[in-house]
Amino acid sequence: MLILENISFIRNNRYILKNVNIVFQKGKVYTILGTNGAGKSSLAYLIMGINDYKPSTGKILLDGEDITNLSITDKAKKGLTLLWQEPVRFQGLTVEQYLTLGGKLKISNDQIDFALDLVGLSPELYKHRMVDGLLSGGERKRVELASVLLLNPRYAILDEPDSGIDIMSLSMIEKVIEYIVKNKGTVIVITHREEIAKISQEAYLLCNGSILAQGSPDKIIEYYKNKCDSCSHANIPTTEEVRI
User: By C-alpha distance, which of 202, 204, 195 is closest to 224?
Assistant: First the structure.
């Protein structure tokens, strides 16, 4: 179980996140929904421990262990992984080398082929292509999704998994999520898209750095559309969480 306990993040004397409390149970799919600038990616970076993203207050607990201040490497060793909204660019690597971490990840050709097939890329066409500048944004995102699959994560944080990918690929993203859950993983999807949110079992609405509401995806989407699309984002009261 992954628990965020009273997480706040302050930068330049401003709250980016404030008193966030979430429990992620094993084998479920969660959505963190919200408009641009709500703090969704910051929350993902805090969980993963990216660079200087450390909670100003609060704790991150994994199966009862405090992992708040662990490095990104140590968190990865414990089974956490992050799909970046914008895939990282590497020079001089083939897709196969990228997926195997330059040969450090001991996986078979069959596993690589399976992961590429699942994200809609032909292994024969893509394994030996270079990832630096010769793939489209959508292709790089698919390769990144394949890399997440091959890590077999316990907790996969997918930051805007549909970014750069056409809407017709929604079924592919759903298959990726289903595969992770089938292998006893938990998926945390960061998105502002209703179509993606509906894949989850539990949804949280993040607004102005705080959890405004939580509940079933359908109810949170409706709340999101009614409360967020037609009001001033900065003026939404965030002192009380609504259970829907």
Answer: 204
Is beta strand 202-207 parallel, antiparallel or unpaired with respect to 29-33?
parallel
Q: CATH no. for residue 214? A: 3.40.50.300
Tokens of residue 157, six digits: 């944080």
Task: Return d(Cα 145, Cα 158) in angstroms, integer.
Answer: 9
Compute the distance between CA of residue 89 and CA of residue 213 in angstroms, rounded to an integer.
36
Phi, psi for 228 (deg, rounded to 5)? -100, -35
State residue 224's pLDDT score.
81
What are phi and psi for residue 206, nearest 5 degrees? -100, 125
Q: How many domains does the chain have?
A: 1
Does the pTM surpass 0.85? The reply is yes
Distance CA 68, CA 4 (A): 9
pLDDT digits (tens, 9 = 90+) for 55-82: 999 999 999 999 999 999 999 999 999 9
- Dihedral, 191, 204, 180, 151 alpha carbons, nearest 10: 70
Is 201 within 8 Å of 25 (Cβ atoms)?
no
Parent domain of 236 = 2-243
- Contact between 160 and 85 (Cβ < 8 Å): yes
Q: CA 189, CA 177: separation in Å to the nearest integer?
A: 9
